[in-house]
Amino acid sequence: MKKMVAGFVSVIIITLILTSCVQKNKNKIKFNKEIVPYSKEETSDYSYEIKGTSLEVNNNCGNLKIEKSNIDKIKVRIEKLVGGKSEDKLQDALDSINCTLENEVVNINSIWKDKTTINSINVETTIIVPNSIQSINIKNNIGNVNIAGNYDDLKIQMENGEISYNGNLKKGSIFLKIGSIDLNFQSLKSDYSYDINGEIINGKIKMPKGIEFNIIGSMAEKVKIKDEINIDEEGALFDINAKVGNINIEN
Questions:
Q1: Which class for 67: exposed (0-12), middle (13-18), buried (19 or more C-beta within 10 A)?
Q2: What confidence category does residue 238 fall into, taking pLDDT thresholds of 50, 70 and 90?
Q3: What is the distance between the alpha carbons of residues 128 and 251, in angstroms, rounded to a whole number?
Q4: Helices (H) and strands (E) in the chain, counts
Q5: DSSP string of 87-118?
Q6: Is residue 160 part of a domain?
Q7: Looking at the domain assignment, is residue 82 inside a domain?
Q8: How many domains in the chain?
Q9: pTM score above 0.90
Q10: Residue 112 — pLDDT band, cuts 50, 70, 90?
Q11: Tens digit of pLDDT for each residue in 225-237?
């Protein structure tokens, strides 16, 4: 219980630090000038050919967005914003944030370690994948993950943040230590299955009207289900396990 409370408190502290350093202006992130007098931004684009129908993504910095499109290569765009109390290290910090492809794995990393000169970093990564990609495995640290598109299999392993998904997914496995989920399934069939695990999870699951599903796991009795939604042991299976949380299922 103490570890769980400590983890929750740490997320609150991180959130307060981030909101004090950045402010949104017309959907564009800007650092607070009083805290971060110098800042610089840059956009980097990458293009990769990949074999097969599966993709693995390791993201160690910032928010991640994944979309599908009628293309034949993987397109990666990283929007970077760095700031601090010294101007001479800004470009070095931007250069340290990059993307590589190794053994069919897309890696988004920041190797910058000197927090005395650069105290604020915001990274927004968008990955556009071909329609042929049917399986994605995502490992993400602190940050939000937003995915749209139809997949046979989706795996997400994340420490802290928000996960949102919109599309048709046959099989899903999500581990979110602390954060929220927003899942919008366009269709559900009886052989579809989803595992959702973590410590502190809040969120909602949206599904089409008239769909029947079954729910098991430690959260089964705590999930709030709208009256017009029917549970059937033969329906799509949701296995939801968390120590603390609130999950709503609705049409």
A1: middle
A2: very high
A3: 28
A4: 2, 19
A5: STTHHHHHHTEEEEEETTEEEEEE----TTT-
A6: yes
A7: yes
A8: 1
A9: no
A10: confident
A11: 886 677 888 889 9
CB contact at 8 A, 192 and 171: yes
Interatomic CA distance for residues 192 and 185, integer angstroms: 11
Cβ burial, residue 209 (10 Å; 0-12/13-18/19+): exposed
Residue 20 domain flag: no
Cβ(188)–Cβ(210) below 8 Å: no
Angle made by CA atoms 206, 204, 229, in degrees to the nearest 5? 45
Question: How far apart (Å, rounded) are the C-alpha atoms in residues 107 and 136?
Answer: 13
Question: For residue 130, is it within any domain?
Answer: yes
Determine the Cα–Cα distance for residues 83 and 73; give it in Å rounded to an integer. 33
Domain containing 120 equals 36-250
46-75 pLDDT, tens digit per residue, is 999 988 999 999 999 899 999 999 999 999
φ, ψ of residue 120 to 5 degrees: the values are -140, 130
Rounded distance, CA 233 to CA 43, Å?
A: 49
Question: CATH code at 113?
Answer: 2.160.20
Question: CA-CA distance, 153 to 167, in Å (whole number)?
Answer: 12
